[in-house]
Amino acid sequence: xxxxxxxxxxxxxxxxxxxxxxxxxxxxxxxxxxxxxxxxxxxxxxxxxxxxxxxxxxxxxxxxxxxxxxxxxxxxxxxxxxxxxxxxxxxxxxxxxxxxxxxxxxxxxxxxxxxxxxxxxxxxxxxxxxxxxxxxxxxxxxxxxxxxxxxxxxxxxxxxxxxxxxxxxxxxxxxxxxxxxxxxxxxxxxxxxxxxxxxxxxxxxxxxxxxxxxxxxxxxxxxxxxxxxxxxxxxxxxxxxxxxxxxxxxxxxxxxxxxxxxxxxxxxxxxxxxxxxxxxxxxxxxxxxxxxxxxxxxxxxxxxxxxxxxxxxxxxxxxxxxxxxxxxxxxxxxxxxxxxxxxxxxxxxxxxxxxxxxxxxxxxxxxxxxxxxxxxxxxxxxxxxxxxxxxxxxxxxxxxxxxxxxxxxxxxxxxxxxxxxxxxxx
Length: 426
What we know:
single chain, alpha+beta, Pnp Oxidase, Chain A, UbiD C-terminal domain-like, 2 domains, five-stranded mixed sheet, 12 helices, 28% strand, globular
């Protein structure tokens, strides 16, 4: 479903909270979103803005499933299928995203939220950046953008990822388009990390029809249904980016990052701006759930994987639980190794048997308490590539973050009597 269609669906089913109170993008709106994190909010009266602001589109697993037209338990299978079978999107003419063309760029007209007074500036947090790598082609990914002035942002570009790799290859500016106000299936696809050369927008098109439109000033294609498109260049000029509260709800440190200069803005009439609260429920699930299929696929290569959950206590990023059906004595340990390959930022993983409900974390802890022994089921890996979002990791400017990783095999020991480990449920 397109964004406007999804909002109509939510309104019809009583799942959309429409906020009539005028709230400022400066601090006020973020406070309101923080107090209603698991609700889909549509701010109808935004001072100084002709359109509306939406938040919470992906704040619950059930919402993401609704948008894809499936049950929550079908999310991982449908994402795995789309990732393995991408479909090239069609190009259309006269797209909705270009109903209005603004050649005179003034980014301050957008309702870009400043979330906390200590932030480095107002931040675009739900913008999907589209670039073309000279070797691998089109790439779509999320980048937070700190507003500098009417025409410029400074973009957080994670080292070694798709945009950074492409930006490093070109001698001058890298053409870039940022799409804001997108349907859920595109947001999910842009959050995924497929192999190099696999286009995230083709994954999106495998999930639901995703026609693209050619940009007016850049050699790029963007989702035709986007509410707002910023066409510009990622330059070689650098500026301090941050401070910013990231996924782990801790302050990310300030870095010198590339400046993005915007040359053209197009949008729909009365555009809907998507505001994603940093570290909030929507941020966690939108980043985390697309990692579940990659973990699932990696584990399934070495053991029979039944299900995966990234867990809220690990901010849906650093911790995961993997359910397997054991076929051999080493399956639990193999699954640990594979899970870290399936999500390189993963820090801690627990492997459990098929009788454990991984949506109930007390059952996971029960499995650790009754089936795990540290001298046979604990895996500790030192100085591994980790997440820059983890403040306890080793951070060296210009280098990949290093961390220690831990895996827990909380499955029934191979060869043990099953009845000795069976849980009695009253």
